[in-house]
Here is the input.
Amino acid sequence: MRAIRVLLVDDQELMRQGLRKMLEIEDGIEVAGEAADGEEALLVTAACHPDVALVDARMPRMNGVELISHLSARHPGVAAIVLSTFDEDDYIFGALRGGAVGYLLKDCTPEELVDSVRRAGRGETVLASPVAARLVAELRRTPPAPPPPTVPRDRERLSAREAQVAALIAAGASNREIAARLRITEGTVKNHVSSLLRKYALRDRTRLALHLKDPPTS
Here is the structure.
């Protein structure tokens, strides 16, 4: 299996060196490149084609939230994880709205960081416990937006395979688990997930899972 290619984005060289040494000893993980700010990260991303980007929140020239928005638009296949000292709402919600798949704090353990990189590489969402708690509290405070239709338009109804994938997503299965259960590749699963996101007019896998698990009543 191909190694997960990781881009390190942090304005502190010491932090980048530490992360590189930590990740390079892990099987199945390869540090593909480094950048000291968001603008440099966009150039490096185009050259090294990472699977996962570990992004600091505060950086000169272009901060992490801005970078993640640009990555989502230009390189949607890159799973961005914020790795920051700061757990401020502007950074957390800005990054997640921009397309980040995760938000970790720099006091996490090496094991938690490595596990998060692997999970992000599989298409999963990763959140530090304090960040997850803040997100849940914010969702409880925020009035729900008008729900999308429970059933896609007639001309775009789910295929039999999409329905199977949707059922497993609703049950909480990861892409790897779905692939194993249906005896298909993870790449095929990702294609079905992309199709489901389009048909349900949703922007990410987390919202899709919540929608399928608890669909709005008409």
Observations:
- DSSP finds ten helices and six strands in the chain.
- The first helix runs from residue 13 to 24.
- The beta strands are 4-9, 29-35, 52-55, 79-84, 102-105, 126-127.
